Amino acid sequence: MSFQINDRLYWPEGKRKAFTLSYDDGIEQDRRLVRMMNERKVRGTFNLNSGLFGRKGRVAAGKKEVDHIKIPAEEIIRLYENHEVAGHGVNHESMYGMDTARCAEEILTCRKELEQITGRPLTGFAYAFGAVDENILNAVRLSGIFYARTITSTYKFDIPLDFLQWNPTCHHDDERVMELADAFLSDDFYFSMYSPAKLFYVWGHSYEFDQNDNWDHMEKLLDKVAFKDDVWYATNGQIQSYVDAYRKLIFSVDSTKVFNPTCTSIWLGGIFSEKTVEVKPGEITELLPAIEM
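Structure (tokenized):
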């Protein structure tokens, strides 16, 4: 026998599902991707290199060679206005083997320069080439970054315990992505000791659609997940900020009350229950009664 305490995180409005995208490099193909996302009201985060705006190049990476032309700085605000801008390093360097000071220079300079362009504080980062080690992690922390994305697929919908090593669900070209989308959208019970709320996180580079001639693949994925009433479509930063607010909640010792010291409403429920309660900012709220299992 055990008791289910109804203190688990649910997404805003008590939703059980959240979907977010993350795309790297800030390249011209983003224009088409952003248009597709905007048409479906899907939100995401675009990770940019502050020292490479407007640079023209080509990329192959073992596949068909295609244009890799960086968006000019003057277009950033307009293009990504419905989404979030995050850092990807000044020059897209792999920071493996660098000392903490050099890593911090690459991360913090990128943050400062992107903030000057967007006019807002920047809290997110994506590791170039997925490179992350202890020195890089230390530099990310010292640079005031709240979350940083890797390229390691989890094939799960779990909320990360450490947002500075945020592993996505999968890449958009992963052979399992449509299967995962179906599982995400399913109302079947999703068991996680942390929260029954699901997070589907897809990442990639928009130039890859040109390489693989599969823009239709992304259209099918977006069409599948878009316009669902039970899904929260959010940027990476919105996800992290909401979870951070949840982690700041103060619970009574007997698990009957909770105080919300933040400015964000948080929804709570149980692992096996569909009922939720809103914990409003600055208020003490009664939790739903515990359930004997």
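The mean pLDDT is 95. The chain is about 25% helix and 20% strand.
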